[in-house]
Design goal:
Blueprint (H helix, E strand, L loop, with lengths): L1 H6 L7 E2 L3 E2 L2 H10 L7 E6 L2 H9 L4 E5 L2 E9 L8 E9 L6 E7 H9 L4 E7 L1
Length: 128
């Protein structure tokens, strides 16, 4: 997600000189409270999955963040159009149940699971 953000001109999603290095949990807080907004643009919350998917499908940076995890939306759905089936790209840890490495394109539910998917928020980068 950080590499994608950098390509869009957004600030780092992992480090800032005045606050140091941070992970996905703090990233969620920083996106929510505007800490990462700067003179180049701002992160804006996207309140529903349909708008988030449409933005990503049109080439906008859209992040899905929550429960200590972050991924980039790639647009569209794998199956029925609901938040669980949003297409994402992530570089996550190894799945505890299946042993599968959670890297690459997949459905959002594969990244978060059924319970944690309810806590996610989505943000898009808007350049000035």
């Amino acid at each position: 997600a950080n590499e994608f953000a950098q390509e869009f001109g957004a600030p780092s999603l992992m480090y800032r000189s005045d606050i140091g290095e941070f992970g996905a949990t703090k990233l969620g807080k920083y996106l929510e409270n505007g800490t990462l907004n700067n003179s180049n643009g701002q992160f804006v919350e996207v309140p529903n999955h349909m708008d988030a998917s449409n933005l990503a499908s049109r080439g906008n940076l859209v992040l899905m963040v929550g429960a200590g995890h972050v991924a980039t939306l790639t647009g569209g759905y794998s199956g029925e159009a609901n938040i669980r089936n949003l297409n994402i790209f992530q570089a996550g840890a190894q799945d505890r149940n299946s042993g599968r490495h959670m890297f690459g394109g997949m459905k959002a539910v594969d990244g978060w699971g059924n319970k944690r998917i309810k806590s996610v928020k989505m943000y898009t980068w808007r350049s000035y």
